[in-house]
Amino acid sequence: MRNIWVALISFSMAGLAVPAEGKELKAGDTYMCSWGxxxxxxxxxxxxxxxxxYAARQKIQSYKFxxxxxxxxAMGITEQTYDSPTRMKPAAVxxxxxxxxxxxxxxxx
Length: 109
Hints:
Blueprint lengths: L1 H20 L5 H22 L4 H10 L7 H14 L6 H19 L1
């Protein structure tokens, strides 16, 4: 009897996991996540090299952005990066940001 319950629970858990796998990101969501991850990595690089938040903001203001939402998003990402006490390497920040962004986008679907 115990084996039957274990089998039933296993199949029900597998049945719940299948619909979650079918979700895919749109190209725009993937682009936004990768762009944001790159922005976070650059901000972390500036932070670790000793550049002040004020100077980082000035650099962002001098950049040309392809889309209107990018400037404010870059400012927000940079401020959050500077507010964080983490000393992670920029590559780790990029990967962490990208993974969390993808999880968030998939959860919204």
